[in-house]
Every structure is written in C-alpha cells, then in structure tokens.
TrEMBL record:
SUPFAM superfamilies: Staphylococcal nuclease. This is Thermonuclease family protein. It comes from the Bacteria. Gene3D superfamilies: 2.40.50.90. It holds the Pfam family SNase.
Length: 126
C-alpha cells in the first residue's frame, strides 16, 4: 500500500538501486524509475543490463545514506521488494544516482512519472 511509514532501521545499499532495511523485518527496497549496473554474475545472458561500474554504483548509493531517510512506498515488485522513492536529508536517492551517472532512467519502471518529474528528466530513455 502506498504511503510513508516511519521505521527504526539502518538502510544498507545492496547494489546501485536496491536497499535493505537492517532491522526488524529486513525489508528490501527497490528504487523506482532507475536501473543500476548489476553486480558481477547477476546479469543473465538473455537480459539487457544497465551499463557502468556496479561497485562504484553501490558505493555511490551507500554514500547517500547518511542522514534521516523518508521512504515513499508505492507497492511491491514480483520479487516481493518494496518499490519506493527514498529521500535522505531531503535528497532523492534515485535522482542522486542518475545525476552521478550511476544509474539510467527507465520510464517503464517510473510509477506515475514521479522520478521524471522529481529529477526533471526530459524525454524518456528505454
């Protein structure tokens, strides 16, 4: 169910577009509207994966986790992860990843165009 919920947990970057809430329940959170490079061994041969350095992408996301987080939950994906926009100290993590070149924008994954509007993305990319 969409909405904001206050949780007492520490966010940990799993990769460049996925977080884990290290605390009760261990919620996994997938940032909407972006795709980051896959960690080694995670990009199947039949899949088109985001270009770039997956280690640098994860490090960039982790560096953005210092501060108070707000999670806007928008649903769940087929893997049971929470789909969300996450802001830390007022900075949208998806926008931060895009601006740093650590992820690409994927319009089909942008629930309601929130990332396009929030990150001021003109046009769409596949």
């Amino acid at each position: 169910m969409p909405g904001f919920v206050l949780l007492a947990c520490a966010l940990v970057a799993i990769d460049g577009d996925t977080l884990r809430c290290a605390g009760p329940g261990g919620e996994h959170i997938r940032l909407i509207g972006i795709d980051a490079p896959e960690l080694p061994g995670h990009c199947r041969p039949d899949r088109r994966c985001a270009p770039g350095d997956p280690i640098a992408s994860r490090a960039a996301l982790a560096a953005g986790l210092r501060g108070r987080a707000t999670i806007e939950r928008l649903g769940k994906d087929r893997y049971g992860r929470t789909l969300a926009r996450v802001r830390v100290s007022g900075v949208d993590l998806g926008c931060r990843q895009l601006a740093g070149g650590h992820a690409i924008y994927v319009a089909a994954w942008d629930t309601g165009g929130r990332v396009a509007r929030g990150c001021r993305i003109s046009g769409t990319r596949p």
